[in-house]
Amino acid sequence: MNYSIIIPIYNEEAVLPKLYERLRSVCDSLAGEGELIFVDDGSRDQSLSIIEKFRSQDPRVKILSFSRNFGHQMAITAGLDAASGEAVVIIDADLQDPPELIPELIKKWREGYKVVYAERSARRGDGIFKRASARLFYRLLKWLTKYPIPENVGDFRLLDKQVVTELRQLREQHRFMRGLTSWVGFRQGKVAFVRDPRYAGETKYPFRKMLRFAFDGITSFSIVPLRLAVSLGFFIVIICVGLALWALGARFIFHVTIQGWTSLMLAVVFMGGVQLMMLGVVGEYVGRIYEEVKGRPLYIIERKEGFE
Ligand code: UDP
Ligand code: MG
């Protein structure tokens, strides 16, 4: 097998025909043998039966179908576990990532890059809020982690077989694939493209899911939030020492008694808030330990078609 293309699908019946048409013509133009791995992430619409129709006409189409919705990152993981190509491409189903870029990714890969990102030079398709929040997130991530996770890069990328083999060893529950591919290293290159709007249907990443995803990204690659608790605590202790000196001086040197209800209240409430917040941060990491320790499989495949 020369190349594998992994497409995570969750309720994408509206885009599938167009997607397949464009993917097929790209595949036809590529030299060598290829496979199209459609990973159905527990879709509740007609997606799976549409993919089955593709498969009945085209043996390159292979299907992995989950027993329920496990999420985008798990769908990608399942695809990577099953892919047998020398080069493996991950692409979104909604045609925000143009399949026509794949030959360029492959060209770059032939130059010797083991990971080739598709970098969004412009996001025609996304609203101002999505753009601003993405920007903020990547800034924060850069500041919090020591792995170079590139900005303006989604999951659309090409991975060399060797990288895929390494990625398969990383079995963590909270998966942020973009971070994981940076973590494994290897020579990484990029190709620029303009990101189109979603072709049809609506986003499968509502705000809450996006926030979860951002949190996973940060907590799986950084313990800086935990360290922040220590620094903040230290900072507050210093302020408290200053305040204590001032209060003692006022009492014993200047003999003024301070009325002080307001300041007392403020200090108590502030400290309570800080402690709860930091407890929450610690809890977030403890919860993740709990989920890892259970050691559950990352996804469950109900049906598999086209694989030996
Ligand atoms: N997706 C998935 N499972 C999910 C959510 C999304 O497999 O639970 C797939 C979806 O079908 C699409 C890709 O992940 O192929 C990206 O989703 P979407 O385009 O909705 O995200 P956005 O581009 O809005 O961030
Ligand atoms: Mg999209």
Task: Record the SSE blueprint.
Layout: E1 3-9, H1 16-29, E2 34-40, H2 47-57, E3 61-66, H3 72-82, E4 87-90, H4 102-110, E5 115-123, H5 128-144, E6 153-160, H6 161-167, H7 177-184, E7 188-195, H8 207-221, H9 224-252, H10 261-294, E8 301-305
Parallel strand pairs: 1-2, 1-4, 2-3, 5-7
Antiparallel strand pairs: 3-8, 4-6, 5-6
Helix pairs in contact: 5-8
Bound molecules: uridine-5'-diphosphate and magnesium ion.
Uridine-5'-diphosphate binds at residues 8-10, 12, 41, 69, 71-72, 75, 92-94, 96, 198, 203-205.
Give a short synopsis of this structure.
By secondary structure, this protein is α/β, with parallel strands linked by helices.
Description:
- The protein is of the alpha/beta class.
- The protein has an eight-stranded mixed sheet with strand order 7-5-6-4-1-2-3-8, sandwiched between helices.
- It contains ten helices and eight strands.
- It is elongated.
- Helix 5 (128-144) packs parallel to helix 8 (207-221).
- The longest helix is centred in the C-terminal third of the chain and has 34 residues, at 261-294.
- Bound molecules: uridine-5'-diphosphate and magnesium ion.
- Residues 92, 94, 96, 198, 203 line the site of magnesium ion.
